[in-house]
TrEMBL record:
Residues in SAM-dependent methyltransferase TRM5/TYW2-type domain copies: 86-332
Name assigned to this protein: SAM-dependent methyltransferase
Region: Disordered, residue numbers: 1-23
Database matches in SUPFAM superfamilies: S-adenosyl-L-methionine-dependent methyltransferases
Biological source species: Haloglomus irregulare
Listed GO CC annotations: cytoplasm
Length: 332
């Protein structure tokens, strides 16, 4: 950057450089990235300009920084005259437009803009079925596989065959930061490995199960990509079918299946060792977001002392519904 670039005092999220892409993707998904100013990096620190510092999650450090004014970049709004709703996963741009003609116009504008996009897709269905995948209309480009980078890990993902949400990057990082090298981590609904892989990179021994065999194939590939295949075991199938092989094994269990995790609590308790932390995800009404999950855990873990160590609102899921997490320690 030359010294004659115009700068302005701008609110920015400050993160370590290796966490920058995950933070940028998370902020972009929340529509908080300020496209009028440049992202800067210096001394291993990334500063990401944001439009509304009050809306930035508390997990981020917000500072004021002299950010360069962006010049010469073409955005979709510059092409269209209106701003389409979109997110990014790797080099895939994901639209959320109801009208097919409007969606195609938005896709063409994305490809004509300065956004580095290999493929543009539009949501064609809700998440559905046991594997939690959705249908997509591919409007530009020809592939639904991409590489997503998050907190120093990279994940090969095919959005047409597996479920993956970049929105949960900050939450995943919060959980993984608690993992120690002597942990035995069991992810009951592991997907392509966004909890398992970084936990293994911290030295933990990890097991991941998933009902979707495509996701398990990607989990194994991602373990190889990130150099942790020797610490990751992956199982394709219903976690209840493999749990007997790991009875009393886990010191940490991830249950990220928020609509129906309560149906698997007996299995989680069977997996738990004498001292085990359970990361239990739930979706509940905002009038009592934590109560139902806590009561279900206490009922299932009758042979343990149950201590709730954290109650966390992860994100708003729908009007008056919250996606929450309970960090619960089970001790015999």
């Amino acid at each position: 950057m030359s010294d004659d670039r115009r700068t302005e005092p701008t609110p920015c999220v400050r993160v370590p450089r290796e966490e920058g892409e995950a933070a940028r993707a998370d902020l972009a998904d929340r529509d908080l990235v300020d496209a009028d100013h440049e992202i800067t990096v210096a001394d291993g620190v990334l500063r990401i300009p944001v439009t509304d510092p009050a809306a930035v999650p508390e997990a981020y450090d917000v500072v004021t920084h002299e950010a360069p004014v962006r010049e010469g970049q073409t955005l979709p709004v510059d092409v269209l005259g209106w701003s389409p709703t979109y997110g990014r996963l790797g080099d895939i741009v994901i639209l959320d437009e109801d009208d097919p003609e409007r969606a195609q116009a938005a896709a063409d504008a994305v490809m004509a803009s300065s956004i580095p996009a290999g493929t543009v897709v539009n949501r064609a269905s809700k998440v559905k079925g046991e594997t939690r995948v959705r249908d997509w209309d591919v409007l530009a480009g020809d592939g639904t596989e991409t590489v997503h980078r998050e907190y120093g890990c990279e994940f090969l993902v095919d959005i047409a065959t597996v479920y993956f949400s970049p929105r949960l990057a900050t939450e995943r990082h919060r959980v993984v930061e608690q993992v120690s090298p002597d942990d035995r981590v069991f992810d009951m609904f592991a997907g392509v490995g966004p909890f398992v892989i970084p936990a293994a990179k911290r030295g933990a021994t990890c097991v991941g199960a998933d009902i979707n065999p495509e996701a398990v194939d990607y989990l194994r590939e991602n373990a190889r990509r990130n150099g942790v295949a020797d610490r990751v075991t992956a199982h394709a199938g219903d976690v209840r079918e493999v749990a007997t092989d790991y009875a009393g094994w886990a010191s940490r269990i991830v249950m990220n299946l928020p609509h129906s995790a309560d149906a698997f609590l007996d299995t989680a308790v069977a997996l738990a060792g004498d001292d085990c932390v359970l990361h239990y995800y739930d979706i509940q009404h905002d009038s009592d977001p934590f109560g139902p999950g806590e009561r279900a855990i206490r009922e299932a873990a009758a042979g343990y002392d149950v201590t709730v160590e954290a109650r966390r609102e992860v994100r708003s899921y729908a009007p008056h519904e919250l996606n929450v997490c309970l960090d619960v320690r089970l001790s015999r």
